[in-house]
Design goal:
Number of strands of chain B: 9
Structural class of chain B: alpha/beta
Shape of chain B: globular
Helix content of chain B: 25-40%
Order of helices and strands of chain B: EEEHEHEHHHEHEEE
Number of strands of chain A: 10
Distance between the termini of chain A: 28 Å
Strand order of the largest sheet of chain A: 2-3-8-5-7-6
Structural class of chain A: alpha+beta
Number of domains of chain A: 2
Largest sheet of chain A: 6 strands, mixed, barrel
Helix content of chain A: 40-55%
Oligomer: heterodimer
Strand order of the largest sheet of chain B: 5-6-7-3-8-9
CATH architecture of the domain at 5-100 and 165-229 in chain B: 3-Layer(aba) Sandwich
Strand content of chain B: 25-35%
CATH class of the domain at 5-100 and 165-229 in chain B: Alpha Beta
């Protein structure tokens, strides 16, 4: 039966090709858009993953995502350190602030202050300089992508042309002088403003005067302790919100999805791919069945049961689905590789592959149901009609 | 010694449609067809020939009357049982042949065996043997569309015979063939049809093949109006 089904399908090359191309295109649309969506949402939490030294993030209860600054009192740090199961806790400052580059270019940046003593919360990779150089007077570290973009010296210095900001360049941060001592490499984020790292004490000196200055407390749980349980204890002891890294990721992703509407936008495109898949597959299968109507009728007359024909068409649809899915996923993966290289968000996870497969499966089931009705209702007596 | 009765029907009726548009296709057909005989069913278009062979071969259900085919009553079977009964007992040669164009010749011939549930390898081997007997062995691997009309007709006959059916039903088997090819096809059908365990029923408008028949049944307006037994004996 399988051989008969496949020979019938592959023998009609034009329709087989059309069916597979249609399903591949639907797979491409579904998985590519889903991968870009996944890439975008994962970037909303790049900051958290780059600050991987911490197990827990403690913040104001009204904080909704990574860039949402609702400062907390500095004594929260001591209260967190006093909770059982907390191995260490350090402060972090994070706020938008205006800077002026040496050539007069003005930018809004995110100033990040990390613990002076441990430098916990530092960027994951240093390309130039060392993280310890932050301990030098007025030292800041900038991001490798920013020095060619938001922190580029667009007007140039001393008659020279535009160039990237580099180690040794000066930056005016809120009217206070700073010197670039290193260039770090961070993961690409959903948010685009430049990031400048310095120490916590220097950050709060540079920041505008406020009663509360600390943005987050980063904490490490003791070996063997359950981060979820410790987070609950921290929240109970301090009255603040305490999340595991994954919990904070989920909070940030949820906020971005709710506020930006990207879920709906990508959802519409994914649904469009699904609808295209259903329509193309249904049309092609319908044509295939109509074209083979006499053959199916002859087979029924010769003793093919409806169950046999059901299995026959199912094998044909299943084979086309596997081919279409494979080709679609392959094109999506290759195009994603180039999309990633060009800096666009693209992340093809197993979830996306399963979503694509499920989408195509449902496409084919709907298309097959549509076509099979015709096969099952076919009267074998038509074989005697010339 | 008279041949065994293969098909027997009494008062067979069948209509299509309802109300004012009803068409009475069969109006009480009484008939006995013997095994080992070549029976031609002739008559003008619309006289009920196709309806009659559709009922005899278990494709259509009758409205009234009695029917027995090789002692069985396929009318008493469920659709599923009738489908299985056709698969094992009936071979068809359709007017338009209905070979599956995307399958190879041997695959087409093997189809009745595959539908019976035989393993593909064995079905193909038997199909090749039948094709060889019909001098089509060298055409086994190609698509039917690449064959001549006469060759396609022989492939259709091979498909009808491969599972050794007891009832062979042929609908206008020579209508698309020239005289020479038509003659060859009828010789082939007669050679396989005149067996003691098989009945061959041929629907035809082609007077050139009357000479091959053991018996000619003429139908008009849903009834058998003439029954001519000819010289051939089983």
């Amino acid at each position: 039966m399988i051989r008969t089904a496949l020979e019938m399908l592959l023998g009609d090359r034009a329709r087989y090709f059309g069916l597979v191309v249609g399903l591949a295109f639907a797979t491409l649309l579904i998985t590519q858009q889903a991968s870009i969506f996944t890439g975008f949402t994962e970037r909303t939490a790049s900051w958290i993953r780059d600050t991987g030294q911490a197990d827990l993030w403690i913040m104001d209860t009204q904080t909704e995502f990574t860039e949402d600054r609702k400062p907390i009192q500095s004594n929260a740090l001591q209260r967190v350190r006093g909770v059982a199961g907390v191995e260490w806790a350090v402060p972090m400052y994070k706020a938008y602030i205006q800077v002026r580059l040496a050539d007069g270019t003005r930018r809004n940046v995110r100033l990040v202050g990390i613990d002076d003593a441990t430098l916990a919360g530092a960027p994951p990779v240093m390309l130039e300089g060392r993280i310890e150089d932050l301990r030098q007077d007025r030292a800041v570290i900038v991001d490798a992508r920013d020095v060619n973009d938001a922190l580029r010296l667009t007007r140039g210095l001393n008659g020279a042309g535009p160039r990237p900001l580099g180690v040794g360049d000066r930056i005016d941060i809120n009217d206070q002088d700073a010197v670039v001592v290193g260039v770090a490499q961070r993961s690409v984020e959903f948010f685009w403003d430049a990031v400048i790292y310095t120490t916590y004490s220097r950050a709060v000196r540079m920041a505008p005067r406020e009663r509360k200055l600390m943005t987050f407390v980063l904490a490490k749980v003791s070996p063997g302790a359950d981060p979820e349980e410790v987070a609950q204890r921290v929240a109970a002891a301090t009255g603040l919100a305490a999340f595991t890294s994954q919990g904070f990721e989920d909070l940030s992703k949820g906020f971005i999805l709710r506020k930006t509407g990207i879920l709906e936008n990508f959802g519409v495109t994914i649904m469009l791919g699904f609808v295209i898949g259903v329509l193309v597959a249904a049309q092609m299968l319908h044509n295939f069945v109509v074209e083979n109507q006499k053959s199916f009728a002859a087979m029924k007359a010769m003793g093919a049961s409806n169950g046999y024909l059901l299995r026959l068409v199912s094998v044909q649809v299943g084979f086309a689905a596997v081919m279409g899915l494979g080709i679609g996923l392959g094109i999506a993966a290759v195009s994603g590789h180039f999309l990633e290289q060009s800096g666009l968000a693209f992340r093809m996870t197993w979830d996306v592959v399963v979503l694509g497969a499920a989408g195509i499966l449902v496409c084919c089931l709907l298309a097959a149901a549509f076509s099979l009705r015709r096969v099952l209702k076919l009267d074998p007596a038509v074989v005697f009609k010339g | 010694m008279s041949a065994a009765v293969a098909i027997e029907c009494r008062g067979l009726t069948r209509s299509f449609g309802s109300g004012e548009t009803i068409v009475q296709a069969l109006r009480g057909v009484d008939l006995q067809i013997h095994a080992g005989q070549v029976t031609l069913l002739v008559g003008p278009s619309g006289c009920g020939k196709t309806t009659l062979i559709s009922i005899l071969s278990g494709i259509l259900r009758k409205d009234g009357g009695e029917l027995r085919v090789f002692g069985e009553n396929p009318e008493s079977y469920t659709e599923r049982q009738r489908t299985a009964w056709r698969a094992h007992n009936v071979g068809f040669v359709f007017q338009t042949l209905n070979l599956v164009p995307t399958l190879s010749v041997e695959h087409n011939v093997a189809l009745p065996l595959i539908l019976q549930g035989m393993a593909t390898r064995e079905a193909f081997a038997r199909a090749r043997a039948v094709l060889a007997a019909l001098e089509l062995a060298d055409r086994a691997g190609i698509k039917p569309g690449k064959l001549s009309g006469g060759q396609q007709q022989r492939v259709a006959i091979a498909r009808a015979l491969v599972h050794e059916p007891r009832l062979l039903v042929c609908d206008e088997p020579t209508s698309a063939l020239d005289a020479e090819n038509g003659h060859r096809v009828m010789e082939l059908l007669v050679s396989v049809g005149r067996r003691s365990n098989r009945a061959l029923v041929v629907v035809t408008h082609d007077a050139r093949i009357y000479s091959f028949a053991d018996r000619i049944l003429r139908m008009e307006d849903g009834r058998i109006v003439e029954d001519s037994s000819l010289v051939h004996q089983p």
